[in-house]
Amino acid sequence: MSVPAMPEGSAAAPPGQPRKAATAAWIGSALEYYDFFIYGSAAALIFPEVFFDESDPATATLLSLATFGVAYAARPVGALVLGHFGDKLGRKKIMVFTLMLMGLSTFLIGCLPTRDQVGGLAPVLLVLCRVLQGISAAGEQASANSMTLEHAPPGRRGFFTSFTLSGTQGGQLLATLVFLPVAALPEDQLLSWGWRLPFWLSVGVAVVGWVIRRRLDETPAFAQQTAEEGVVKLPLVILLREHWADVLRVIAGALIASVSTIFTVWALAYATSDAVGMSRTAMLWVGALANVVALAAIPLWATLSDRIGRRPVFLIGAAGSAVTMFLYLWAVSTGSYPLTFLTGIICFGVVYSAANGVWPAFYGEMFTTRIRLSGVAIGTQIGFAAAGFAVTFAARIAGPAGDDWSAVALFTAALCVPPVIAALSARETHRVPTESLGERAGLGAAQPQKVTA
């Protein structure tokens, strides 16, 4: 494959490209994560009755939430593969591929037979489709993040890369809004055909995303690096040799995603269980409103990080989430709708958005262009894998009745500690020029492995 060469010494994006890249990242991530998050809502509300044994509701819910975590287990594998090809072939091709794979796997979930129709084969097919979703998601954020970071003008990398995550929140909002009328269907219609509709809509998602992303230009930083140094033959080798400590920091930092999975999946299942008895529709609205607030908060936090640095903003989000998640789960336990709405918006919409909005720049700036996509993809997806299964562990920690919310809150707070440590040990990079990112004494002169002509 040929990559357009950039003039020597030039890594500036053409006029309008930073905004175009950010818009494509936002829309593409929103569409991609619409697919990913409708599974979370279905796993909490519907799949226990459709794909698992209804005679034991607690076990059915546990198994359903475990299938949610399966995608996170597949993500490190997807990160290894897609990160490798993203650093060899470019960011654009991976962005298009991940979107098409997500659309196909999500559509297939909507076509699956239920347990009543094919017995134990139904959950097996569900897991296989979920694995494909996980592989797709593994490359999505890292490729979109690398695309926006490398197109961004100096001093605004935090703002432009935040569009990837605000797009993710937009996809979560879209998924919630689509599920609102579906969840309001009569029980027999919901469990027979209604739950399939959000998954079938992924066909339109894939088409729209393909049209948007195929028009993107490759980043000037990647094009220049390729023209001057050649394609990196084994990005993983360079990554582990020169940036292993940064990979560990990203893994630890990515555990902050546990806040999102506990909020969007376990808390939803807990609130609508017999232990609390809140309505499905009301809890979906909590998520919807929190995501609306997050859409505004994420770019604001990211802009602040362009001024004062990545570390302090990330620390606000990580440490603050440990406290506010405790308040949110307590509010859910009371069954009070006003308290649940208020604390949910504060926890997920405002505080968590500080870490969520800044990590695309924070993590991406730890690595050089030649291994950036691999570094971000592998580091985040290993951390996200643990965060995905946090839901399953939470279901166990909550006890046989599934109502020990305080234990789940403490568990979530403990998962916020590694991100705090990672941020405290990281370098501040918000003022480092893009072409110098990831370089350290003794490493700047290291020669990449090249592909011969």
TrEMBL record:
<dbReference type="InterPro" id="IPR020846">
    <property type="entry name" value="MFS_dom"/>
</dbReference>
<feature type="transmembrane region" description="Helical">
    <location>
        <begin position="193"/>
        <end position="212"/>
    </location>
</feature>
<keyword id="KW-0472">Membrane</keyword>
<feature type="region of interest" description="Disordered">
    <location>
        <begin position="433"/>
        <end position="453"/>
    </location>
</feature>
<keyword id="KW-0812">Transmembrane</keyword>
<dbReference type="InterPro" id="IPR036259">
    <property type="entry name" value="MFS_trans_sf"/>
</dbReference>
<keyword id="KW-1133">Transmembrane helix</keyword>
<feature type="transmembrane region" description="Helical">
    <location>
        <begin position="282"/>
        <end position="301"/>
    </location>
</feature>
<dbReference type="InterPro" id="IPR005828">
    <property type="entry name" value="MFS_sugar_transport-like"/>
</dbReference>
<dbReference type="InterPro" id="IPR011701">
    <property type="entry name" value="MFS"/>
</dbReference>
<keyword id="KW-1003">Cell membrane</keyword>
<feature type="transmembrane region" description="Helical">
    <location>
        <begin position="313"/>
        <end position="331"/>
    </location>
</feature>
<feature type="transmembrane region" description="Helical">
    <location>
        <begin position="405"/>
        <end position="426"/>
    </location>
</feature>
<feature type="domain" description="Major facilitator superfamily (MFS) profile">
    <location>
        <begin position="21"/>
        <end position="431"/>
    </location>
</feature>
<feature type="transmembrane region" description="Helical">
    <location>
        <begin position="337"/>
        <end position="363"/>
    </location>
</feature>
<feature type="transmembrane region" description="Helical">
    <location>
        <begin position="62"/>
        <end position="82"/>
    </location>
</feature>
<dbReference type="Pfam" id="PF00083">
    <property type="entry name" value="Sugar_tr"/>
</dbReference>
<feature type="transmembrane region" description="Helical">
    <location>
        <begin position="375"/>
        <end position="399"/>
    </location>
</feature>
<feature type="transmembrane region" description="Helical">
    <location>
        <begin position="247"/>
        <end position="270"/>
    </location>
</feature>
<feature type="transmembrane region" description="Helical">
    <location>
        <begin position="94"/>
        <end position="115"/>
    </location>
</feature>
<protein>
    <submittedName>
        <fullName>MFS transporter</fullName>
    </submittedName>
</protein>
<keyword id="KW-0813">Transport</keyword>
<dbReference type="Pfam" id="PF07690">
    <property type="entry name" value="MFS_1"/>
</dbReference>
